[in-house]
Write a structure and sequence with these properties.
mainly alpha, 80 residues, two-stranded antiparallel sheet
């Protein structure tokens, strides 16, 4: 919401995301098919949300991917 010329705190992350997506992806690519656009946008979104560091988070990724390691104990507990 615009309140007297300032952007509400909740909208600011979305504005930053959209600006970065436009600058880093949309302005640099020519999409020949809808599927190509969808694939490239998903790859960019995934990289943005899981790999690249964000200054607001002390240069850590916002949602690092987790790897689930299957051990014999966890496998046995799932089978019973």
């Amino acid at each position: 919401m615009d309140q007297g010329g300032c952007v509400c705190y909740v909208q600011q992350p979305m504005i930053d995301f959209n600006g970065k997506m436009r600058d880093e992806l949309l302005n640099r690519e020519i999409f020949y098919t809808l599927k190509e656009a969808q694939v490239l946008m998903e790859q960019w979104r995934r990289e943005y949300n899981t790999l690249r560091p964000h200054s607001a988070l002390n240069y850590r990724p916002p949602a690092p991917e987790t790897i689930w390691v299957q051990t014999p104990a966890t496998l046995a507990s799932r089978l019973t």
